[in-house]
Amino acid sequence: MNCPFDEDYRPLFRAMIFTIVSCGFKPRCALEVIDGAATRISKIEKLIEDCQLGIHDISRTELDAASGLPRFNMPLELGLFLGAKRYGDAVQRQKKCLVLDVERYRFQRFMSDIAGQDIEAHGGQIGEIINRVRAFLNSASRGAPLAGPANIQADYAVFQERLEELCRELALRPDELEFKDFAWAAAEFVAVGNQERT
């Protein structure tokens, strides 16, 4: 997962994590390991090397108030992923990715060299993030079709209602959850739901 990690993006980030878990995949991102001994770019390179699927949200292009410059970490990471697919070994060439933006063709104004890529728009909406991520993972899945987006959205609404209860097991509040904590809570919820259905 290559996306913004700030407070404004958090609702979309969490919906993305839940969707990935709900579809039977393991969410991974640069937040999974805190290691001051490793450079950030080396952690990202290792994640890209390890993951066959990538989700890249390039929507954060606003200028930073302090510097007057945009932050282009997400396009940089997308470039690394595409480079691994293009120049890597046979395993790396099997990589697939989902590229997201707020509007479908907006990227042409700031990153026109990727014209021809299929960029999906989420409009900043949780439901659309769930729809797009689920469709991507469904196309990459080798088994039966995944649960539909309406079902995942309904499960996510229930999960959000029960999140405080799940957090008690971690002795945390919902607003304190780090990436690993949230992914664990989502996996616990999905596992219980799957047991109830069988």
Topology:
Elements: H1 10-22, H2 40-50, E1 53-57, H3 73-87, E2 96-101, E3 119-121, H4 126-140, H5 149-170, H6 179-197
Parallel strand pairs: 1-2, 2-3
Helix pairs in contact: 1-4, 1-6, 2-3, 4-5, 5-6
Give a description of the structure:
Strands 1-2-3 form a three-stranded parallel sheet, with helices on both faces. With 198 residues, it is mainly alpha-helical. Helix 1 (10-22) runs parallel beside helix 4 and helix 2 packs across helix 3 (73-87). The chain has helices at residues 10-22, 40-50, 73-87, 126-140, 149-170, 179-197, and strands spanning 53-57, 96-101, 119-121. The mean pLDDT is 90. The longest helix has 22 residues, at 149-170. It is globular.
